[in-house]
Specification:
It contains one helix and four strands. It has 60 residues and is α+β, with helices and mostly antiparallel strands. The chain has a domain of 25 residues.
Length: 60
């Protein structure tokens, strides 16, 4: 069975573990109809448009 030759320092151990847990900001794009920030490839929650056409009719 494999046994480590030396003790791994806390700094080396923690720096290895810290790189995995970094979160990325979610991707956002502007709606072509109203300019609201939305998730890409999804219907705009503000106006109901997707790719320049109305998908969901919103009562404004």
């Amino acid at each position: 069975m494999a046994v480590p030759k030396r003790k791994v320092s806390k700094a080396r151990r923690d720096s290895r573990r810290s790189a995995v847990w970094k979160l990325e900001a979610p991707a956002l794009s502007r709606c072509t109809h109203c300019g609201e920030l939305t998730s890409p490839h999804k219907v705009c929650k503000n106006c109901g448009y997707y790719k320049g056409r109305e998908v969901i009719s919103k009562e404004a």
